[in-house]
Amino acid sequence: MSAKTLYDKIWDSHIVRCGEDGTALIYIDRHLVHEVTSPQAFEGLRLAGRTLWRQGANLAVPDHNVPTTHRDQGISDPVSRTQVETLDQNCDEFGIQEFSMLDPRQGIVHIVGPEQGATLPGMTVVCGDSHTSTHGAFGALAFGIGTSEVEHVLATQCLIQRKSKNMRIRVESELPCGVTAKDIALAIIGHIGTAGGNRHVIEFAGSAITGLSMEGRMTLCNMTIEAGARAGMVAVDQKTIDYVQGRPFSPTDDQWDQAVLAWTDLHSDDDAVFDVELVLDATDIVPQVTWGTSPEMVVPISGKVPDPNDEPDAVKQSAMKKALAYMDLESGTAIVDIKPDKVFIGSCTNGRVEDLREAAAVVGDGQVAGNIKLAMVVPGSGLVKQQAEQEGLDRIFLDAGFEWRDPGCSMCLAMNADRLEPGERCASTSNRNFEGRQGQGGRTHLVSPAMAAAAAIAGHFVDIREVQRSLPQRHGVHRPRYPLEG
Amino acid sequence: MEKFEKLNGIVVPLDRPNVDTDAIIPKQFLKSVKRSGFGPNLFDEWRYLDHGEPGQDNSDRPLNPKFILNHNRYHEAQILLARDNFGCGSSREHAPWALVDYGIKVIIAPSFADIFFNNCFKNGLLPIVMERTVLDGLFQQTADTDGYRLLVDLEAQTVTPSNGEPIGFEVDTFRKHCLLNGLDDISLTLEHVDDIRAYEQRRQQEAPWLF
Ligand code: SF4
């Protein structure tokens, strides 16, 4: 038998049938559902008189439209409310398990899945949401689908797919202090571009990746979609198994032992061949900040806003000019001189408890700078929120002047009331800096949680490596010293 | 799904890379629980000078005269020329729904984001991948010629300018077949119910923890 990549293995074990032209019917193990991309799919089922193929494979949670304050009072925007209520009704009607808005387990779908053990190694996981790539951190094949495909999965538990190509990105050596999974993701996107992964599934490997926690791997796989790839994945190791064990949807007893045995094969064979392979040195990676309106428009914190005239490609040059105008930035401005108006810590990229710990460690007993109009922390799920509160992280944020909110997508895409006003600039731990993403006319700079927290305290972007050198190992003990306190 | 065979349509050039689905249809319109009616809000933030909200009457909103779709000569456009990585970002199928609802039937670009590309085929919208240098020529001709048209023939897999030679393009056989015949994926898959059941039985033996 020829050597296989991790992607090959999962793909092969999910083929229901394969046509002569390479079009395959692929079985889907887990389907996650949220309120934005599902109503038309349920409606489609109803209109065609179809039923659900397998109820237990689905798990639903509202996240995009839910308010992050005064949730007990319901959703004030009637259109958002209808969408969330439609999900509730559809789940009731079709018998799908749902963590509804007031359930303590509610949260962003990509945080809830792994947290519940609903995402397991070797699975195929889909959701009507591009950041489904997150779940690849567990050695699963996970990708986003459109609403027609949501309907297809509901009705058949399968999808019609063609296989993507194999790409491997190895990040070797140890990550320098202050550099996180978010920075690896942004550095990779800066390197290969937002279309760099088109038609590929990317496996992340190398010592810097195996060194990451499961949370870090999720952050990295989450952003794979921003590199244009179909999915991102990381091989299963002991960390994966330890994370999954004991979660509500995880197998138990004999089935657990059987599963663990099967999961040990979830890695690429030594002599597997990749269509594209890339090697990066972790020690070259510096904390990253995006300056433009595409995640590939990114520079190290030590850098400057680039000059479009240095870009030889005419199409790119014109895009850079548009981005500079939109972001109201001048070429040559040092990144550390950029001052955000708002700070957002949260999203499916960086809304897990480890992210909140990292941010809290940087906040220490500092105060949000006077020029920051709003600094908010939005935990990724109700359980993340509980855990953070048990650890006292909420106190650190609240004492510093951050708002501590209820879980949801919030200002990652501003479908609820949390948004930027036109012209406002935001240091954000989310994943997209597109025009208008966080509110019409809003300007987004993507950063890691530690970098966002540091910017909130200093009132401008700062090199977290300099801050962290002065930090104690654990959070909340000493006040960090900032190079240029705002 | 509506069939797609041939189309002779006016071409509109959207000359920027990485056009994301947030730009194609901004998030506030995603709150709809319907599949139709997104056309008036296609490219909402670029197309209008004010802020659009769902349910609004769009006919008296101030148009952005600089945005290409608002130029008189492109009013009836059905073919969109685009740049690299068109449709990147969110998986929202509202993006192809909005394009189709507006009247776009073909998009030609050097590359597309994967999920968007898939979503197009489910909605009778044909995405064509074309080499950058060839596409540059089409951009140029569109700019130079008022009412510039292309004839897109899916069966023959060609794009033909009114005054030029046919340009060939590649398309997946299965998807071509579905588009030409307006086939619905779900009914196709449900022809294989026995295969799905057999797979489930086998898999349940091998990996019972998945069921
Ligand atoms: S947090 Fe942002 S990126 Fe993640 S699912 Fe929600 S809206 Fe999408």
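qc> Chain B is about 30% helix and 15% strand.
qc> done
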